[in-house]
TrEMBL record, chains A, B:
InterPro entries xref list: HTH_LacI, LacI/GalR-like_sensor, Lambda_DNA-bd_dom_sf, Peripla_BP_I
Protein name: LacI family transcriptional regulator
UniProt keyword Transport present: no
Xref: CDD domains: HTH_LacI, PBP1_LacI_sugar_binding-like
PANTHER family to which the protein is assigned, alphabetical: HTH-TYPE TRANSCRIPTIONAL REGULATOR GALS, LACI-RELATED TRANSCRIPTIONAL REPRESSOR
Keyword Repeat: no
PROSITE patterns xref list: HTH_LACI_1 (PS00356), HTH_LACI_2 (PS50932)
Lineage of the organism: Bacteria, Bacillati, Actinomycetota, Actinomycetes, Kitasatosporales
UniProt KW keywords: DNA-binding, Transcription, Transcription regulation
Recorded superkingdom: Bacteria
HTH lacI-type domain span: 5-59
Signal peptide stretch: none
DNA sequence: TGCCCTCTTGGTAACGTTACCGAACGCGCC
DNA sequence: GGCGCGTTCGGTAACGTTACCAAGAGGGCA
């Protein structure tokens, strides 16, 4: 196994100095075309690739052209779409993306962030988990840019891209109420997650505005997977006074719930998903645009990396309620029924 | 904005030499507890993080604890599952993952691979695109390990993890034929992609074995998105002699096709997807296990990184045909109908 | 007391690159 | 011819870390 060639090897091969090789490799001006050709020939012959590790070390206050992206779980389609969008933007800026999953574990998030900063990322996009993010303080102070996406990090004064979770869920629940439902179930992930908390608040606000007492028996928090959500639905519906409508707080929960949901129960899910329109009945959803969210977050990050020092801002992206049928199933109090 | 502290700063703060700081930071033995405590205090006070860029430079023949993962498109749920599995394995080995998408573009693949090697990754997992991969030769010779996943790279002698694409599709098409279909449509991505070619060959083999002439009018290649697949289905079904059954070569095509597919056309898709069982009719699929595939590929890669020098091998993971209904719709030649 | 051995500690030289400076060369002009 | 200038090139010193070696302190033993 050949050892990796260095500029010195290339220089020797081409009969020039290392500085000339450096200039050619980086496309710097001031090299005679004939010399450059000789160097490029040597580069090809030896299979030389510039070593960015050494390069970054020397160019201390330059950029590493690397950003980090930490999401809850890469396999989650919503997060995957954000990741893909972020990667596209990074590419436009000549950067690559380090990826990591927190799996909703603060210790793991810490480790991922540490691994990122140790690799001198220019900045990172995070979907923060529950807990204190004070450990990010020193990282930020040392110049690493941070943008939060999907979830806000309370106590951390950074750019944030979120959607109008509270309004969206409140409006959706109001819609269910208007369609004649009073016993509306709520299925959500861990309530401590910012997004989840906002959505739950929206649910409660809609009930309160309609003068409906919130029944804790209709609420299930902490659902982390499809099967957990399915079990929760089965249990809710087996209760003495089952709900006539359900709201699912995210797409994982929604898909899990739909696997066992009878077609006569009204249903609205947060996040759109493929084939929602082909279900029986077609599924009404609160749609957000993960590509737009990821793109916006990445643009904010690169603006910071490139010197934007304006005060941190929070961008609220819109959601759209897409009525397809499942959310329009009338409830027992529907007018005219 | 404070500049990033170095070991020298910590050493000055703690009143020790840099070597002592290095030892403490790396948990090396041979430092008196009292001294170590003083250093750790200084580390905390200054918010010091080890600079792995400099570390890697010095430890030239050591590992960078970074691997690359290049897939066609991160947002593709199949690829996202592989990415997630690979990240989990990487984490077990204390490594982080650089991610990149080729988007089926050889030039882009080259750039991503170059960006990976420039960052001295220990190895990479690739889903190679169409084209020659000779440019990987020098990278491999210089010690970067490569594992191909999902698709083989013809002409590249590396570990590869694939599924039995040919057999799986041939068996699925045989099943459609046994159910009375003779005009069976095929919807696929670019035929030049290894996986796609294998699946198409399986389709042709099943037809030939049954003595059915392959009708090119029933075959659509090069479908890169859901909408393209939907259009293709609409066109195929509008033809004078439309197919009575369809086989979709991957999940993106399948989901696109299902958006417009009438319920009386038999259908089998490659790759399982959420809620396939809840469609009307429930969708028969050839399922592969992306988590197992990604995990296997990552394990192979780390085995190589840790010194495995046995000859490259190809691991063929199993697929499972899951009959749910859509693939069992009888055709015009069904017995007893 | 002198010697050796262990424990702890620090100095120095790399790793591969680039920033900074200076040198060599050719050319035009006084 | 001498001088200045632009072009092309190379030497040297960093970047922050670790490998290697060496040195001082302290203790045990002859």
């Amino acid at each position: 196994m050949a050892t990796r060639p260095t500029m010195k090897d290339v220089a020797a091969e081409a009969g020039v100095g290392v500085m000339t090789v450096s200039r050619v490799v980086n496309g710097d001006p001031g090299v005679a075309p004939a010399t450059a050709a000789r160097v490029e020939e040597a580069v090809r012959k030896l299979g030389y690739h510039r070593d960015d590790v050494a390069r970054q070390l020397r160019r201390t206050n330059q950029l590493s052209q690397t950003i980090g992206l930490m999401v809850d779980h890469v396999a989650d389609p919503f997060m995957a779409a954000i990741a893909s969008a972020a990667e596209d933007v990074a590419r436009q800026h000549g950067s690559v993306v380090l990826i990591g999953s927190s799996r909703d574990d603060l210790r793991r998030e810490r480790e991922v962030v540490a691994a990122f900063t140790a690799r001198r990322v220019d900045g990172m996009v995070l979907t923060p988990v529950v807990g204190s993010h004070r450990f990010l303080r020193s990282t930020i102070e040392q110049g690493t840019k941070v943008v939060c996406v999907d979830r806000a990090a309370p106590g951390l004064d950074v750019d944030t891209v979120v959607v109008d979770n509270f309004d969206a869920v409140r409006d959706a629940v109001q819609r269910l109420i208007a369609n004649g439902h009073r016993r509306i179930g709520y299925l959500g992930d861990r309530q401590e997650i910012w997004t989840v908390g906002e959505r739950h608040r929206g649910y409660l606000a809609a009930l309160e505005a309609a003068g409906i007492d919130a029944d804790p028996a209709l609420v299930r928090h902490g659902l982390r997977s499809g099967p957990e959500a399915a079990t929760a639905v089965t249990e809710l519906l087996a209760a003495p006074e089952p709900p006539t409508a359900l709201l699912a707080g995210n797409v994982v929960v929604a898909i899990g719930a739909l696997a066992v949901l009878p077609p006569d129960i009204a249903f609205i899910g947060f996040d759109d998903f493929a084939l929602a329109a082909r279900m029986t009945p077609p599924v009404t959803v609160i749609a957000q645009d993960p590509v737009a969210i990821g793109t916006t977050a990445a643009h904010l990050l690169f603006a910071r990396i490139h010197g934007d020092t304006s005060p941190p801002r929070t961008v609220v992206m819109p959601t759209t309620l897409i009525p397809r049928g499942s959310g329009e199933i009338p409830g027992p109090y529907a007018q005219g029924s």
